[in-house]
Design a protein that fits this description.
globular, single chain, two-stranded antiparallel sheet, 22 helices, 3% strand, mainly alpha
Length: 498
């Protein structure tokens, strides 16, 4: 059986098993076992990929192609490179951590875990697809369950947040669909047959005017999911109302599909359009980086702080991709991974704090380091990773981004880079502010003096995210080398048009 298709089949089988499960305990066990298998497959794929890459220098490895709709030349085509392998590993870790963090969910648990795993199925399918149409289908499969997960299991103004998220992402999908069809109907510019296959389209010389028209549509269609300013407003409200595990998958995995789509589709297939429009979207991305940092500084709700922080960090991903050079692109991939582990860990910890104190308002918290030492220390570590401290994943990612961005000799790029770099200072301010108010000093509420300790399933979820976050910071070279190797054919396609 195709090693990549298992990433779709196993979650689907897990969902089917959940449909026939009885009670909370069975739902937990099935979800945990299914997610463990997915993590095992991702780790196995990593080692198999590294072994195969040593002798096979194809753009994509383990490619499979099955005709789906012959009349439109739509295929179920799959393949991976170093970038997609790392994102599959990120997804499997965050999904398993989310299952452990949701261990105590008792409101429609079977339906909750089913929705969670359907979302994961869409994400896995998206990262392994090399057919535009198939990729778009999986994109929609990943987005749709978010409405149910927030609308049913969320808190606060959950109906409003779920509807806002769905409408904005569906609107982006409509724009994206126009871009995808624009690419498809120009995929025979050299006289061949129309195709949705990414590798085949990349060999076609699509006219400049076509690229100029469809690049912004394709870019915006994906970048809205990556919280591009000013289309980011769905994200903070969605985060604030979503249950903990959904926030983890939302920020840790789902939003990475935006940057991946920009890289894999918009820039790779429409390089002339990317060169033409890069200045405009660099401005929007730089604004997003700064705006997100200052937005986090203004908030007092822990979830909103982390949500605006995500807008800032993911703005760096889009900013780096638009720089169109190998170093910045490598930084963008590393930033996607770093932010995935870091923000999922943040949301897991926020869920634990809220579950014990019943508040996310930092002004009502204080002295938690005395009463919740383990959770508080992990929060400090996550905060240090977020502000880019050496030794953590954020440092190596941001260094690659800013070094790559500053390689441009034109003043516009360097000014934009300096502006974006300044967000690091603001990030340090809001992170240290939260740590000081929430963790230090005296306990403000007597009810907080006897809070429950972290449970085994919470600790397991934390460690699943903490270990790779530190591992990336301590030993980043093997990961960086793997992604850099995969970026070469993509950057070469851009360089050929410069």
């Amino acid at each position: 059986m195709d090693i990549l298709s298992l990433f779709v089949i196993v979650p689907v089988l897990t969902v089917l098993a959940l449909v026939f499960s009885k009670g909370l305990k069975q739902a937990r066990i099935i979800s945990m076992v299914g997610s463990f298998i997915q993590l095992g497959m991702a780790i196995n794929l990593l080692f198999v990929y590294l072994k195969e890459r040593a002798v096979n220098k194809s753009v994509m490895l383990f490619t499979q192609d099955t005709v789906w709709f012959e009349n439109f030349n739509i295929h179920y085509a799959t393949g991976v490179d170093g970038v997609s392998v790392t994102l599959l590993l990120l997804t499997s870790i965050v999904v398993l951590a989310g299952v452990f963090i949701s261990w105590k969910t008792d409101d429609l648990p079977k339906e909750f875990f089913i929705s969670l795993l359907v979302l994961a199925t869409g994400v896995y399918g998206f990262f392994i697809s090399i057919d535009l149409f198939t990729m778009f289908v999986f994109y929609e499969i990943a987005v749709i369950p978010m409405y149910l997960l927030i609308g049913i299991w969320g808190s606060g103004p959950k109906e409003y947040s779920a509807m806002k998220l769905t409408l904005m992402l569906m609107g982006a999908s409509a724009v994206l669909l126009v871009g995808v069809l624009g690419i498809y109907f120009n995929s025979n510019a050299d006289g061949g047959a129309l195709t949705f296959n990414i590798l085949e389209i990349a060999k076609v010389h699509i006219p400049f005017e076509v690229q100029k028209l469809f690049f912004p549509l394709t870019f915006i269609g994906f970048a809205v999911l990556g919280a591009l300013f000013p289309f980011h407003t769905w994200s903070p409200d969605g985060h604030a109302s979503a249950p903990t595990a959904v926030s983890m998958l939302h920020a840790g995995v789902l939003m990475k599909m935006g940057g991946y789509g920009v890289f894999r589709i918009a820039i790779f297939l429409l390089p002339l359009g990317a060169i033409e429009w890069s200045w405009f979207f660099i401005i929007l991305s730089a604004i997003g980086v700064i705006y997100g940092a200052f937005g986090a500084l203004k908030q007092t709700d822990l979830k909103y702080i982390n949500a605006y922080s995500s807008v800032s960090h993911l703005g760096m991903v889009l900013f780096a991709l638009l720089m169109l050079n190998k170093t910045a692109w490598n930084g963008a991939i590393l930033q996607s991974l770093s932010h995935g582990f870091m923000t999922a860990l943040f949301f897991a910890l926020i869920g634990m704090i809220y579950g014990r104190t019943h508040t996310r308002d930092i002004t009502k918290l204080g002295g938690l380091l005395k009463v919740m030492p383990f959770i508080s220390v992990i929060y400090v570590i996550a905060g240090l990773a977020s502000l880019g401290l050496p030794g953590f994943s954020g440092f190596i990612a941001e260094m690659n981004i800013f070094v790559g961005a500053f390689q441009h000799e034109e003043m516009f790029y360097r000014v934009a880079t300096v502006i974006s770099v300044s967000a690091i200072v603001v990030t340090a301010v809001y992170i240290l502010r939260v740590l000081g108010i929430m963790l230090m000093g005296e306990v403000k509420n007597e009810e907080f003096l006897d809070l429950p300790k972290a449970t085994w399933f919470e600790i397991t979820g934390i460690l699943l995210l903490l270990i790779p976050m530190i591992g990336m910071g301590v030993a980043p070279l093997w990961l960086s080398d793997m992604t850099m190797d995969s970026l070469q054919p993509f950057i070469q396609g851009v360089l050929n048009h410069l």
